[in-house]
Design brief:
Blueprint lengths: L14 H4 L16 H10 L1 H4 L4 H7 L1 H30 L3 H4 L1 H4 L3 H32 L4 H21 L1 H8 L4 H14 L19 H21 L1 H5 L5 H33 L16 H6 L4 H33 L5 H18 L5 H25 L13 H22 L9 H18 L16
Protein name: Cytosine permease
GO molecular function: cytosine transmembrane transporter activity
Keywords: Membrane, Transmembrane, Transmembrane helix
Length: about 475
């Protein structure tokens, strides 16, 4: 069956799409002024690199972990980022508009619109958990202090995200220098011992071997990046040309991932080899291995406290930006709801995730995020290619191809989490990547057999 080409009347276009204006070329800038530093700042966040190399390291050793880091960086750039970035470049339109070609003018409000906003509160919970944990460690590690900080941190970030994000943006450019300096210190202290790291036998992880080490590392990194990959549409709207899109990813994604996670893996290997850190006794404790804990064994208490405070301060802009993105998403999909109410409810959820420790279980969190946005990115790539390397335009209502692709991809992506609950469900390796592939293939097939709603004419479109 051929792809349907009829269109609906212009009046059927929702206001949020009809009123969207492309970002003009005069407002765009080189990759080194926007895309690269912003993405690099994401990966310099200490919650990304502090413990996420540990599982790969204790599954297969240092070299397979480093291979997994490089492979994950390439996947993030070429599969999850490039096409969204090019869509943003060519259309000048934000993700919630561009996504309507995949999920429909009505469906796009939910996917990726509402989902992007809702998941930001998950990120806010992760930020609150690790930032509050770092601060409480700096001041003695009291549990009551941790709970109090979770509440204050989340509430303050939500308020600033709603009211004062412009002030945070002015200092956010320089704060990533703090985690970068911490990584360099860790490399200087522990790199010399890294070659002496030997994989413990038996390993504390559920699986063992070089291949599993690569796959688990890929899963963690790609799961962390999945939402930022789809947000490449928004980054692309600030790019001047395709070279800006590519260079922003080469430096801000590939380079930053390899730098931050690579240093963290080497530092953790050196810390374990030197005895600064001990190999955990169980699988559940593997993810508690942290670069900052290794630093605590080498640095003076005052310097360690300063580092933990500095890493926390560097995390605050990210918490505010999560609230800001959530607020904008909810304003779009729920324009009649006061954003203080919607963001307030989301902030309470974030507090609960942080206080209960759920937000600290990063493999689980990244698994859900990767399962959610892996198929979104896969379906968007398929739609882009089917349209002749361009944006097809908004499709009417709910586009079946996009929703079927997402549902099947999400199920595959979340299977590792379900496996922990029910062992009869297979444990899919590198699940976020598998979710991407399923989303791509299913969208391509369903589009080819005609499961697409009609394209709706759009005013002010520049990618015609």
């Amino acid at each position: 069956m051929s792809t349907p080409t009829t269109t609906t009347a212009p009046g059927s276009l929702p206001d949020y799409i009809a009123s969207a204006s492309p970002n003009p070329p005069s407002n765009r800038a080189p990759w080194y002024k926007n895309t690269a530093p912003t993405y690099a700042g994401v990966f310099l966040w200490f919650a990304f690199w502090n413990s996420n190399a540990a599982r790969g390291l204790l599954t297969g050793g240092l070299m397979p972990t480093l291979v997994g880091i490089v492979l994950a960086a390439l996947i993030c750039h070429f599969l999850f980022y490039v096409v969204p970035g090019l869509l943003g470049l060519k259309t000048g339109l934000p993700l919630y508009v561009v996504g309507t070609s995949t999920f429909g003018t009505v469906g796009g409000l939910l996917m990726p619109g509402f989902l992007m906003g809702a998941l930001q509160f998950g990120w806010l919970g992760v930020n609150a958990f690790f930032s509050s944990g770092a601060l409480s460690k700096a001041f003695g590690g009291d549990t009551g202090l941790f709970y109090t900080l979770c509440v204050i941190w989340t509430a303050l970030a939500a308020f600033v995200g709603l009211k004062g994000i412009q002030y945070v943006a002015k200092v956010a450019t320089y704060l990533p220098l703090i985690p970068f300096a911490v990584l360099i210190i860790a490399l200087a202290l522990f790199a010399g011992s890294a070659s002496g790291f030997k994989l413990p036998v038996p390993t504390p992880t559920d699986t063992a071997g070089a291949l599993w080490s690569i796959l688990v590392t890929v899963s963690i990194v790609v799961g962390f990046f999945a939402t930022a990959g789809a947000a490449g549409v928004d980054f692309g709207t600030n790019s001047r040309d395709a070279n800006d899109v590519q260079m922003g990813g080469y430096v801000g994604i590939i380079g930053a991932i390899v730098l931050t996670m690579g240093i963290a893996a080497i530092a953790l290997a050196g810390a374990l080899a030197s005895g600064a850190l001990q190999v955990p006794a169980s699988n559940d404790a593997v993810d508690t291995l942290q670069v900052t804990d290794a630093l605590a064994t080498k640095l003076s208490p005052s310097l360690y406290k300063a580092i933990m405070i500095g890493l926390t301060l560097a995390s605050f802009p990210g918490a505010c930006f999560s609230s800001f993105i959530a607020a904008n998403s909810f304003k779009t999909v729920m324009p009649r709801v006061n954003p203080f109410i919607s963001v307030g409810i989301g902030a309470i959820v974030s507090m609960a995730l942080a206080i209960t420790g759920i937000a600290g279980k990063l493999p689980v969190v990244f698994g859900i995020i990767g399962a959610s946005f892996g198929p979104i990115c896969g379906a968007m790539v398929a739609d882009y290619l089917l349209a002749g390397n361009r944006w097809s335009g908004p499709r009417a209502g709910f586009n079946p191809a996009g929703w079927i692709a997402w549902a099947l991809g999400f199920f595959v992506g979340v299977m590792p989490n379900l496996h922990k609950w029910q062992e009869a469900i297979p444990d899919v390796p590198a699940a976020p990547v598998a979710a991407f592939v399923v989303g791509f293939v299913v969208y391509y097939i369903t589009a080819k057999i005609g499961m697409l709603t009609p394209v709706v004419p759009m005013p002010n479109r520049i990618d015609a």
